[in-house]
Amino acid sequence: MQHIYPGEVFADTADFDIGIRQLLPRYDEMLSVITHCLPSTSRRILELGCGTGELSMRLLKCCPEAQVVAIDYSPRMLEFALSKITAAGYEQRWTCLEADFGDWANDPKELGFHQKFDACVSSLAIHHLKDEMKLKLFQRISDSLCEGGCFWNADPILPESPNLAEVYKSVREEWAVQQGTTLAEIRAKIGATSTYGHSSQDQLATLDSHLQMLTKVGFETVAVPWKYYGLAVLGGWTRCN
Ligand SMILES: C[S@@+](CC[C@H](N)C(=O)[O-])C[C@H]1O[C@@H](n2cnc3c(N)ncnc32)[C@H](O)[C@@H]1O
Known about the structure:
By secondary structure, the chain is α/β, with parallel strands linked by helices. The protein is built from 9 helices and 9 strands. The chain has one domain (3-237): Vaccinia Virus protein VP39 (Rossmann fold, 3-Layer(aba) Sandwich), CATH 3.40.50. Bound molecules: S-adenosylmethionine.
């Protein structure tokens, strides 16, 4: 089995864009929630774990004045993202950095940003960090946002009970069947992962603990604009003085 980094999901990166839509219910709707929650006037947006660039493409379309800085530690994923961004003519407004966002959480000098961001977003990436690192990352994000800046993260959350874990699993199975496949068929394309950098396979936290962490690091308002069984978009705004 092809060995991949946590979060790359599929052994062949070319399978990601179709496979993720079969594996996760309402992936496109989830990403749209993030872009709807961003002010369209945002000028500087940081994206953590951009993968093949699906969210980056939406950000660049919805926020026409924005420069997007996208971080991912996987050269394979970044290569796919760059080809899409270039084909769409967005390369002047998109910069990618091959880096581990856990290193940035530990030390801001790692990425050397000189200016703050209007917004930070992420999808399906931060759940690979242990809770201690999630907290550090949320602190770094909060410190890197302008006053009144926002952060939105779409991620799987820890099921609230064993019964709900079963429910969430069966919803995913039903979804796969509706897409003309099965979870088993999709999983056959998934690569093997072990820990890489600060990430390891699913390190899920409950919705509640996400919100507590965000409050702890100084987000004035925290919110969950979308939840669908075991997936949520959560985040908030920093204080406006
Ligand atoms: C499941 S993909 C999601 C990609 C994209 N955000 C999307 O929603 O389609 C997760 C991405 O996060 C990246 N990733 C995971 N942990 C990371 C880390 N510690 N630092 C940088 N990138 C990371 C993986 O390489 C992968 O591209």
